[in-house]
Amino acid sequence: xxxxxxxxxxxxxxxxxxxxxxxxxxxxxxxxxxxxxxxxxxxxxxxxxxxxxxxxxxxxxxxxxxxxxxxxxxxxxxxxxxxxxxxxxxxxxxxxxxxxxxxxxxxxxxxxxxxxxxxxxxxxxxxxxxxxxxxxxxxxxxxxxxxxxxxxxxxxxxxxxxxxxxxxxxxxxxxxxxxxxxxxxxxxxxxxxxxxxx
Length: 198
Description:
Blueprint: E1 18-20, E2 23-25, E3 34-36, E4 49-51, E5 54-56, E6 61-64, E7 68-70, E8 73-75, E9 80-85, E10 93-95, E11 98-100, E12 114-119, E13 126-128, E14 131-133, E15 138-143, E16 149-152, E17 155-157, E18 164-167, E19 172-175, E20 196-197
Parallel strand pairs: 1-4, 2-5, 3-6, 4-7, 5-8, 6-9, 7-10, 8-11, 9-12, 10-13, 11-14, 12-15, 13-16, 14-17, 15-18, 16-19, 19-20
């Protein structure tokens, strides 16, 4: 049954949704769906708090939600480590996570694969203090009219594609750029109007 494919969805819980101190593994989620989080772009899990978990070996994405994704070890998922979509998602925090070795299923790197991909008019996401490495795809990727995105103090290296990719989006603020993708691929950002590197 479809509901057995996911660990948690916000509509399944009568309390503010979240996951903490769990090992979340081997959920047979389809591509573009996370083992943890809200799966629809129309229903937004803005109250989600996903913290202190190990999220691994899930078929699609490890985590797909907005809210707070903090202090997790997100690795070896089939498509993506982290995903967040929808114009209604604003203020997402992705902080102090290790996001690594995602896309074991070999999804096209130009489609949607790697460490983290967010988009569809997403606003005001902050990705801070993450260690993003050895993903088969981009490290951190924002696609589809994202705005107000802040990347700060992240170490992004040894990913198979771009370290940080801002695609069809604007108003990126990048701080401490020298840490990004410094050993394998150089920093490759599709800079747009309003972007800056400090």
